[in-house]
Design goal:
Helix content: 40-55%
Largest sheet: 2 strands, antiparallel
Radius of gyration: 17 Å
Distance between the termini: 54 Å
Number of helices: 3
Length: 114
């Protein structure tokens, strides 16, 4: 079986699990039906228990913010807009996103706004 076929089968298996509402705990790899989503609800991390969620959250939080920012850019959400779109996000995500943007601007990864 080629690498491409393996990737296809992995993707197919993931779609099947999602359709059955079965998720794999990103910490311990246990498959569970009643999985707990990460605090950011990025859709990329599920846990079998609060213990796994708490233990893995420090590792996942950076990935979670990246997933949320990527999803926002794919859906045409502009983080520089000053309209009230940010009211839909929990306050901790707003402050985390603002902090990341300031850090990226400071490191000259993205241009500063005038």
């Amino acid at each position: 079986m080629s690498l491409h076929e393996d990737d296809f089968e992995d993707a197919l298996f993931e779609k099947l699990k999602q359709s059955l509402d079965v998720h794999e705990c990103v910490h311990c790899r246990k498959s569970v039906k009643a999985a707990i989503p990460c605090h950011g609800h990025c859709g990329h991390a599920y846990y079998c228990s609060t213990d796994c969620l708490v233990f893995h959250s420090r590792t996942h939080r950076h990935q979670c913010l990246h997933h949320l920012e990527s999803d926002a850019s794919l859906h045409g959400v502009d983080s520089d807009d000053d309209d009230d779109d940010d009211d839909d996000l929990p306050p901790f995500l707003n402050s985390a996103i603002d902090s990341i943007l300031r850090q990226l601007q400071h490191e000259a990864v993205i241009p500063s706004t005038p």
